[in-house]
Design brief:
Layout (H helix, E strand, L loop, with lengths): L1 H17 L28 H19 L23 H21 L4 H20 L13 H16 L2 H25 L5
Helix pairs in contact: 2-4, 2-6, 3-4, 3-5, 3-6
């Protein structure tokens, strides 16, 4: 009897999917069972990795204190919370956040802080490569970013043009632990991020 129900269940799933009666994520493969997708391993970072990030953040903050900067806007708005996005949108936002962070910290790494930033940059590049292995950051078909996601992506994209390098560095530095402890964990948790 159970074997006879399988074709009916498959037919119902296909029908519901095509009519959009149930949401289908085409942009990010399942967090745990996708071939080559290992983003779930980042639900929490090791104490050693977190310590490397803390040292980098402390060094960055120390260098920022020595500079006089006046920053007008924030690329990462205060209400930035990936839980406000749909599940398929979260990896898109995280990828954009990682891209900006890597770009800014990569430029800083060319200075005297290079040794301190080396390990965190390697970890961030690894996280981003794993995220991209889970599916395309920008959907090629299906829903396009709109609403809150579109607004956030636009802010991150415009930040290098609108902000001074010092202000951008400050924003990325102050956002670093939120990226690692909240945003990354949320994406790694998939549908279980609440």
């Amino acid at each position: 009897m159970a074997a006879g129900c399988m074709p009916v269940l498959v037919l119902m799933a296909v029908a519901l999917t095509r009519t959009a009666a149930i949401p289908v994520t085409r942009h990010l493969r399942a967090v745990s069972d996708a071939r080559g997708c290992h983003i779930a391993q980042f639900k929490s970072l090791s104490p050693k990795e977190l310590q490397a990030f803390k040292m980098a953040k402390d060094a960055l903050e120390e260098s920022l204190l020595l500079r006089d900067r006046r920053c007008g806007s924030r690329p990462f708005p205060r209400p930035w919370d990936l839980r406000q996005l749909q599940v398929w949108e979260r990896p898109v936002a995280l990828d954009a956040e990682l891209a900006l962070t890597l770009k800014v910290l990569g430029a800083v790494a060319d200075t005297a802080l290079g040794d301190v930033l080396d390990q965190p940059l390697r970890t961030l590049r690894h996280i981003r490569s794993q995220l991209q292995a889970c599916g395309p950051a920008q959907p090629t078909a299906g829903p396009r970013p709109r609403g809150r996601l579109q607004h956030w992506l636009h802010r991150l994209q415009e930040a290098p043009r609108k902000e001074s390098p010092g202000c951008l560095e400050a924003s990325v530095t102050f956002n670093l632990f939120r990226l690692l402890t909240r945003d990354l964990k949320c994406v790694a948790s998939g549908h279980h991020c609440a």
